[in-house]
Structures are given as C-alpha cells and as structure tokens.
Specification:
- This protein is mostly helical and about 70 residues long.
- Strand 1 and strand 2 form a beta hairpin.
- Helix 1 packs antiparallel against helix 2.
- A two-stranded antiparallel sheet has the order 1-2.
- It has one domain.
- It is elongated, with a radius of gyration of 14 Å.
- It contains two helices and two strands, in the order ββαα.
- The chain starts with 12 loop residues before the first strand and ends with a helix.
Length: about 70
Amino acid sequence: MALKLRLNLKKCKRGDKIVWQNWIIGILGIWLIISSFTIHGNLLNELIVGISVAILGFWMAIQSQF
C-alpha cells in the first residue's frame, strides 16, 4: 500500500535513473545550509558540506534532464 503512495514530484527517467532523487538531495543541501546557522556546532564544516551537497544535487538533477 505504501508503495502505491505517490508524491507529486515529476519523475523524469534517463535510462534506469530516476531524476527526482537528485532534486531531493539538492533540497537537503539547502536544509544543511540553513541548519548550520540554527544549530550550534561546527559552522564552517556544516556550511561547506551543505553548499557542496546542494550544488552537486541540483547540478546532477539539471544535467540528467538533458
């Protein structure tokens, strides 16, 4: 039943690869950037990881659509 539940995300396929997962990774990268300012920890490390995850996630999502 849970497998039939669909999110309203556009599923673009290129070969066997599903692109919507890359968009989720990009959004998680933005969440890492925002959370680095709200949760006290190692600000520089969390910021660098968040920026790199967001850039790579969105870049892969855009590249796989073409």
